[in-house]
Amino acid sequence: MNRVGTRARPIPIALISVYFLFSAAYLWVVAVVLIVAPGTLPLMLGSRFMHGLELAGPYMMLLVGCAYGSIGWGLYRLRNWARWLALLVMVWGVGCLVPTISSAEIGLRVFLCGAEIAIFAAAGFYLAQAPTALEAFVKAKGGTPMRICADPQTSVPRESAPRPPAGVAFTVLLSRALSRLRAG
After folding, report:
1. Which DSSP symbol is given to 45?
2. How far is Cα 55 from Cα 140, in angstroms, rounded to an integer?
3. Average pLDDT, the chain
4. Fewer CB within a 10 Å sphere, N or C end of the chain?
């Protein structure tokens, strides 16, 4: 694990933050070239990261690049808001790729879109549910890891308590996360 000060950063979180930072740098470079020399590059160069917003022009590319850069830096610093924004960007990306993969002919395009959907899903799942990721973000804030218990009023860990159904566990996790966001 990488170390920043006293905080441990899991490798997958570092890789996801590097993805967002490289995406931001790419969008910034394309946007600056388009602003300095209009018409030299097609606007569609940003389509992989902007999912339809590239048609708004180079200033939108700068804005989206700033958002990606902020998310990447926030993930690198283990900020919980960046984890949630990264999840939203990944869900948005998967949603925008569904029509693309649905209309593509069998071949390389289907493979590339499918691989991108799989990577977004795996990274999103890791950020949302992996114990190492959750503990890293909680430790960065100085708290204790949030565990799903059979009875929210008890402190019985998940391993020794009977497992609640998946929908109940998700609801408990979501309500606790929202209450922590409101509190701090």
Report:
1. G
2. 38
3. 81
4. C
* Residues 58, 121, 75, 21, CA torsion sign: negative
Read off the amino acid at residue 99: P
Helix (H) / strand (E) containing 37: none
DSSP three-state, residue 180: helix
Q: Distance (Å, rounded) from C-alpha 138 to C-alpha 145?
A: 6
Cα(9)–Cα(75) distance, rounded to whole angstroms?
Answer: 9
Phi then psi dihedrals of residue 3, to 5 deg:
-120, 135
List of residues 6+ apart from 128 with CB closer than 8 A: 87
Where are the domains positioned within the chain?
2-135, 146-184
d(CA 7, CA 5): 6
32: exposed, middle or buried (Cβ count in 10 Å: 0-12, 13-18, 19+): middle
pLDDT of residue 1: 47
H or E element, residue 138: helix 131-141
How do residues 112-141 score in pLDDT, each as one tens digit?
A: 889 999 999 999 999 998 888 888 888 877
The DSSP letter of residue 77 is: T
